[in-house]
Amino acid sequence: xxxxxxxxxxxxxxxxxxxxxxxxxxxxxxxxxxxxxxxxxxxxxxxxxxxxxxxxxxxxxxxxxxxxxxxxxxxxxxxxxxxxxxxxxxxxxxxxxxxxxxxxxxxxxxxxxxxxxxxxxxxxxxxxxxxxxxxxxxxxxxxxxxxxxxxxxxxxxxxxxxxxxxx
Length: 167
Ligand SMILES: [Fe+2]
Ligand SMILES: [Fe+2]
Known about the structure:
Elements: H1 19-36, H2 43-74, H3 80-102, H4 109-138, E1 140-141, E2 147-150, E3 156-158
Antiparallel strand pairs: 1-2, 2-3
Bound molecules: fe (ii) ion (2 copies).
């Protein structure tokens, strides 16, 4: 059931079937919703909240990007460089905001969470979506039937049993 206090409602169309990626995308959506739920329009309260979460949010985003890039690299995904540039541009913009915030400029939570929402939604639904089918094709089936993508360092990226999202 849609929660009206959320800025983003999770949709199964965002799922690529790789558990780690889907969990991280859900985490990003949670992060944006949590931020939106802390909008009070009170500068001090919002600063307190952002102080608590901002560094963790930035590292979460970086970890997610690194995960995707690792899989794109391992599967020789054609759009790798372009996709990586999109990540880089976004991180730089976020870091600019964080820097301003740390030097005392106010970041209104309302506009910041909406900025994040717009980026996260369009990135997952358009840019990430382009690798959904490709990754799936690159996956191999293990003896127990599960699909996985094997990275060069021996790490296995596992699929969940179901991959909704029209694949
Ligand atoms: Fe992503
Ligand atoms: Fe991405």
